[in-house]
Amino acid sequence: MRCNKIRVISLLGFLVIVLVSLNVFLLSTLNSFSEERYLIRLKNLLEKEPDFKQLPTDSSDQYKIDVNFLLAKTELLKEELDVTLVTHCTSNHLHYLLDLTEHWRGPISLAVFIPGYDVVTSFTSLLGLYECHEAFRDRVTIHLVYPLSHPPAENTLQPYWKQALNQQGTCQEFLARLKSNVIAGEYGRNYANFKVPYPNNLLRNVGRSILPSESYVFVVDVDMMCNGNLYFSFLDYAQHINLIANKGKRVFVVASFESVRKLSPSLTKKELIALWDSGSVQPFYYQTCWKCQKHLDYDAWKSYHSSDNNLQIAYSVDWKDPWEPFYIAPNHVPLYDERFKQYGFNRISQVCETHTAGYDFVVLNNAFLIHHGFKIREGFHSAKDEENNRNRELFRTFKQELKLKYPQSTSHC
Questions:
Q1: Of 337, 343, 340, 338, whose CA–CA distance to 405 is shortest?
Q2: Contact 97, 222 (CB under 8 A)
Q3: Is the bond into 322 cis (omega within 30 degrees of 0)?
Q4: Distance separating alpha carbons of residues 102 and 227, to the nearest angstrom
């Protein structure tokens, strides 16, 4: 009996040694493989030598543009129908990509605005995200826009690129700094920089420029998160209605909200409505420009119940001024007018032209966007009213131009 126990104990000891050895071997192999992949990626980045002087300028000759500065590892363009989320920001808002890649599971096209003093912080954050965040590396394609009014010193990028490469520490340290927004540019908000007007519409167009006109785009602000199943739900819906064969002049509106706290990608419409009823969520721009959002008819969206949880069209909406919804649309919708900068009328001008061009607006039943934090009148930068007034005058001119651009249209803003 004693001998049997000794044999069992010896056998168990041998198995433990084998398992530990196998585990060490597998970890060593995995670490070696990961290190090899890391070195390959780092080598590719070291070989990249951005040349500011060789970059093309935009049509206004005010900006240098570097399209596809960093390419997503996953193929961005596909033969079958796909939807790319298009967004934009400055270096101080790049931390939102950590959440955005969780909420949107498809490809993302990001245009980053880089005034000269933000070059190193922008490069540092982008390189860190590329190296340390798999979803970012796999699905986010980066484009850079530099204002010629504030170019990098001596019109060169190589020293700042190398400086950013040399600043890369451990991924744990980098992600902690990014999440706390320690890595940031000179200004806390995009619009707060009065020296360099933020060209939001140019950035949106740059993000769309790499996509064919027949693909679909979802143009949103970088601090707005969608329900986590929206990407795949829309693809399923598109397949169900054979959207590839039945493409038309129609955009799919996504209801937008604001939340006082960060919400999970797994949040359902039912849970969102409960938060709405409790007061911790409210419709987007509810306190600052309710007339800009109310035409969605939030009560109709709230009360719409389908037989299942699948995505579908809840109802259609006739566009009314000054409604500015967010929507998934074919990339052949009108581009954004790049004369609009800073705050005011930049998105609504594009929505207005989309309406004038004859597109229909349909609202999706189980799709929603949520902005980080409530928008309040006191929360805007000091020049907001001045910018809004200036862009209002431009918008009046813009609407007159649309009448000449679409002489046969019966839809007007």
A1: 337
A2: yes
A3: yes
A4: 10
DSSP state of 64: E
C-alpha torsion sign, points 42, 46, 48, 52: positive
Contact (Cβ atoms closer than 8 angstroms) between residue 255 and residue 296: yes
C-alpha dist (Å) from residue 182 to 221, 266, 405 = 21, 28, 47
pTM equals: 0.87
Q: What is the Cα–Cα distance from 277 to 175, expressed in whole angstroms?
A: 35
Query: First vs last Cα of the chain: how many Å apart?
Result: 94
Query: CA-to-CA distance for 105 and 265, rounded, in angstroms?
Result: 10
Q: How far is CA 170 from CA 42, 131, 332, in A?
A: 14, 10, 43
Cα separation of 189 and 225, whole Å?
Answer: 18
How do residues 182-236 score in pLDDT, each as one tens digit? 655 444 455 556 579 999 999 999 999 999 998 999 999 999 999 999 999 999 9
> pLDDT, tens digit, for every residue of 19-48?
545 554 444 443 443 444 444 444 455 566
Write down the residue that tokens 């249209």 correspond to.
409
In whole angstroms, give the CA distance from residue 146 to residue 396. Answer: 29
Pick from 93, 87, 288: nearest CA to 188: 93
Parallel, antiparallel, or unpaired for β 281-283 and 216-219?
unpaired
d(CA 231, CA 247): 18
Give me the residue label for tokens 């390189």. 127
